[in-house]
Amino acid sequence: MGTSVEDVVIVGGGIAGLGTAVALKRAGIEALVLERSEGLRTTGAALSLFSNAWCALDALGVSHKLASYTPSLKNYVTDLDTGEVQEVSLTEANGDAVGPRTVHRKALLEALADELSVHSIRFSSKISAIETQQHEGSSIAIVHMENGTVIKAKVLIGCDGVHSVVSRWLGLREPVFSGRSAVRGLAVYPQGHGLEQNVRRYVGSGRNAGFVPLTDKEIYWFFSGISPAKGASLAEDPEDIRKEVLENYAKDLPPIYLDVVQHADLSTLTWAPLMFRYPWNVVFGNLSKQNITVAGDAMHPMTPDLAQGGCSALEDAVILGRHIGTSFVQNGQVLVVKKMSEVLGKYVEERRWRVTLLITWSYISGWVQQGGSGWGMKFLRDTIFYKFLFLKMVKYVTYDCGKLDF
Length: 406
What we know:
The chain is built from eleven helices and 17 strands. β12 and β13 (207-213) form a beta hairpin. It folds into two domains: 3-69 and 105-176 and 276-397, FAD/NAD(P)-binding domain (3-Layer(bba) Sandwich); 178-274, D-Amino Acid Oxidase, Chain A, domain 2 (2-Layer Sandwich), CATH 3.30.9.30. It is of the alpha/beta class. This is Putative FAD-dependent urate hydroxylase.
């Protein structure tokens, strides 16, 4: 089995992990990505990328690979209790002429992975333990693999998702259950769906459903709501998931939405609980220690109500890559281990408050939109949230993470 030594080891080959590896490669650092799955993880089918994500993709040099996806210009939000429809301009909210684009998760991951060498990603790699070792006054991370292999890393970055092994080693509090779960999938119309490139949402009575076209033949759709009663498990079989949505949770939604669900590609369906980390655990938690840190969901899991999980992960990748890469270049193309604690600390302080607010805004957005049908909640949702708070939230989302000029 043996022992190997790497400059940077990234645990997790999702958006944050691959993005960080690409950012580091721009600086001349060949990171090793350890992914426990047998291939690229595409759970979730698709995701919406706002302007902040496109800034990050520009910096990573891969935005052109996803340019074929059409921006969504408007969001039509239907109140399920009253039937009233609110029209929200996605371009005005973002402060630019281009709205968010919803892309296949697989296409995004492949765009990132294609930038890396064939040996950079090691699939079916499962970690059994993490420890640190002092060497010449500096800390080295020791990663023990289930197959007996030992990897020594000058820098260890956890991008291993909500249930991160690395964040647990750092002592971060575990993410908590939001009380809601979400179904996600793709609908396929072989002859074309004929719908405009706009987002349609249906909210209220504890539910938040919607869809947005991906291509002229595919539609990304979702449904989130209060999870089944305590003790009841979420359906796992795709046919059962679709049946639950159609016959139970969404049976009274408009026919256009039910038709989208009916056209679901069963191979893309997932039903999972929505988790998040309490904001104060991010503010006061150890997001880095010595030469170890976290990014993406491993740092800041959040509910999907502002569609910022993947977007903020891409921000992390660029900013973390810039901090490590700058140190590498300034020290003559050498990763100086004793400087890594300070370098990672600067990355953490740059990210801490932004992601804390994203977690908070996302949770509030979900709570308001899926709230009850009482007059107070209706007033909060229709008069205050959509006409004031939502625009504030989306403007906060607008963010430029900067370039990777090494």
